[in-house]
Amino acid sequence: MTDDSNQKLGDLVVFVDTPSATPDAPAAEDATPDAPAAKDAPADETSPTPHPVPLAEAAVNVGDLAVSRGDGIFESIAVIGGRFIALGPHLARLAHSAELLELPAPDLAAFERAARAGVDAHTAEPELLVKLVYSRGIEGDGRASGWVQVLSGANHAEARGRGIRVVTLDRGYRHDIATTSPWLLQGAKTLSYALNKAALREAARRGADDVVFVSSDDVVLEAPTSNVLVRHGDLFRTPRTDLGILAGTTQAAVFDTLDRLGFETAETVLSTAELAAADNIWLLSSGRLVAPVRELDGRAVAVDHELTAKLLDETFGVLAP
Ligand SMILES: Cc1ncc(COP(=O)(O)O)c(C=O)c1O
């Protein structure tokens, strides 16, 4: 329970004090006509102590645009043995996504305080997942809302050890839409993951575990919750972030390790033919970290268990199963 004792909680939420004066989204046709005008809430002079609430007791207002429109952003951060992985890059990406959605700049220090307080209050686990959520807030209220969830990590042993089966799916966009159609918000980590979840269900129907999205003009993009890493010999490549994909924190960390190990790394444009001809493929993400691909579109792909273990250990201090 949420008493003052040092008793640890399981999965929990910490609400974050958020900035006011949200630039309101352009009035939607079905917006309530008499919604109160945006107003400035009084600025808080002090930093309130974050207060963890058990997940089952944490409530978000049904009028929050995160709930009704998925109009907000998030970050998922791994905490391994109590240590945050790439907290700075995740906070920076939260700020970048906020900019793309024209949300007020999030109070990153408040998010960090809440995240640390949440992890301190959670039962110790080898792996935790911390989700930062930042929403445009209640419609018409003019105040963003934010919260941090601390969740027990899923078991990724099978994905990291045995590997995963993936299928390529057409995202239906050209590779250059981040430039031609920035309102599609590609490259922002928005709360609207219904499409990504639908793609994962399609993968399951096809007997696979995950998806590699490709553009309508045949360029490899990303997975619904991961970046793609492709190896040809000693060259390791990942799709460029100007292709309307998320700049991965895991990918950046893994590239640092590969550079240190003396491999060549590059952010590039990869065709689906190059993907199919790869020596090895991995999906990289904050939860699963490094997952080797063992099957692409029904065809076996070689898994380099030794290198996968090295990347997991040297980058994140995680021992391969
Ligand atoms: C669409 C998408 N691409 C890539 C990633 C990988 O990013 P990261 O390694 O920072 O978790 C994610 C992670 O959530 C994602 O949702």
TrEMBL record:
Gene3D superfamilies assigned to the protein according to its UniProt record, in alphabetical order: 3.30.470.10, D-amino Acid Aminotransferase, subunit A, domain 2 (3.20.10.10)
Q: Keywords in UniProt for this one? A: Aminotransferase, Transferase
Q: Pfam families of this UniProt entry? A: Aminotran_4
Instruction: Specify whether tRNA processing is a keyword of the entry.
Output: no
Q: Where is the signal peptide?
A: none
Q: Does the keyword Transferase apply?
A: yes
* Comp. bias intervals (Low complexity): 17-46
Q: Where is this region: Disordered?
A: 1-54
Q: Which GO terms describe its molecular function?
A: transaminase activity
Q: Which family does it belong to?
A: Belongs to the class-IV pyridoxal-phosphate-dependent aminotransferase family.
The protein's name = Aminotransferase class IV
